[in-house]
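Changelog-linked ticket: pyridoxal-5'-phosphate example.
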Amino acid sequence: MSERRTPSPQTLIFEKGYEPQRSEGAAVPPLFRTSTFIFKKAVDGKRAFELAYGLRQREQGESPALIYTRVNNPNSEILEDRVTAWDGAEAAALFSSGMGAISSTCLTLLRPGDTLLFSDPIYGGTEYLFRKLLPEFGIRTVPFPAGATEAELAALAEAHPGTRVIYLESPANPTMELCDVPAARRVADRRSRAGRPVTVLIDNTFLGPIFSRPLALGADVVLYSATKFFGGHSDLVAGLAMGKASFINAVRATRTIMGSMSDPDTAWLITRSLGTLQLRMEQQQANTARLVELLRNHARVKRVYYPGLAEMGARQVALWKEQCSGAGSVVSFDVHGGEAEAYRVLDAVRHMRLAVSLGGIETLIEHPWSMTHADMTPEQKLHAGFGPAMIRLSVGLEDPADLVDDLARALDAA
Ligand SMILES: Cc1ncc(COP(=O)(O)O)c(C=O)c1O
């Protein structure tokens, strides 16, 4: 017999982390809606807490006992096992939101006096955390352009010897610029000292886990708003952090104490959504291609922002070819004019929904300047490369012919 093939992620996500015989033979994982778990014996409770608080090392083959749903739960554990399949991560931690994942991971790594370098522009909530909250705790946060070269990043890290984290969001929200992940890795390695590693974090929400796998490119931790493609149906809020098991265990300890754990219902829903994640992302991408074509050829559109397009510039095209296997289903564009002209398009669409968020099966349209990125100053937004004429689209699974018709009519009407 020939050797058994290594199963692909699309197969593993139906199998990993679940033994039907431990759940009455249920073919799919049941929902464990419970806040607490019963110990067989007092000594089992003692041993479970010793492990949870790091008072002893895990024994060979020992899996942490279930204690309390803020710490762990079968639904979150099954999901955490399964989601690692695409990114090739050793471990994952589920959170109550993408911001829960981002803030808990940053708080695990950073202490007063440390510096975090972050790619700019960045999602508005992350921006608030970096520009407002972390500095109040004595952590310096320094932006750099999303498409920065290795030399630029190296110079910045050298100017900030306290650098402990290089934080990337790629593609950048909403300008769709890619960051150079291997360059960030090399800079981090050169700045790392014994006992003082520099960690590369990356928010992979827009393209991952199907079209971008940054752990393979050198990132230490990959972060997601699982509210987006993982959930995929605009009906839940959740987050994920993935990376080396030793680090994810530390992040889980932060999660337990900060209370940023998700709940069993949400974990169950995401587990169900995993089966169609690849299909959804591929079809949403195909639908987006139709809209990108329309936008690039429409007289009312000044510029399109989408990974891999020539108008993103030669370096961006090269980064896309090196780092991504697709361009995804989020696209931004500038109309001629300003906010008034953009609003006319936003108010004229009929099938697309005027709402923030992305990655769901319905097409969403929004205005980054006054909505998702409202908290940045006008100068910060212009400096980061977007203005009031920009519109961001997250393309869903409607018939693409209807979407093209809808957008073309809205642009014509404006
Ligand atoms: C790129 C990106 N990262 C993180 C987040 C935050 O995720 P959540 O809303 O699940 O907290 C968002 C939300 O829109 C996002 O777009």
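Closing comment: Example verified and attached. The radius of gyration is 22 Å. The mean pLDDT is 96.
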